[in-house]
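Whiteboard transcription, Tuesday session. T.W. wrote the structure tokens on the left side:
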């Protein structure tokens, strides 16, 4: 794994750990902000690092698809959870 790949992966891990720590220390709907940070910042960094260290192009493409799906659906999931928390009756 190249140095760039390692830096990207470890930066993504650091963002994820920091957001998870914030998630555990806050209460209520503010916790959703930390979930959004993981899906929009942590995941792309980790996926980019793994793509940089991928041995073959098909592996990198699979990682790109996974990363795009997580980045595309993460914010929508956070919004849906926030709406469900605001209106629990339906």
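and on the right, the sequence the group agreed on:
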């Amino acid at each position: 794994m190249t140095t760039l790949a390692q830096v990207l992966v470890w930066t993504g891990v650091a963002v994820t750990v920091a957001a998870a720590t914030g998630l555990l220390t806050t209460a209520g709907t503010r916790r959703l902000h930390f979930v959004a940070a993981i899906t929009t910042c942590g995941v792309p960094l980790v996926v980019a690092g793994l793509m940089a260290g991928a041995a073959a192009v098909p592996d990198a493409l699979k990682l790109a698809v996974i990363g795009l799906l997580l980045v595309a659906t993460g914010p929508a999931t956070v919004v849906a959870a926030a709406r469900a928390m605001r209106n629990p009756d339906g």
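Someone added at the bottom: The mean pLDDT is 91.
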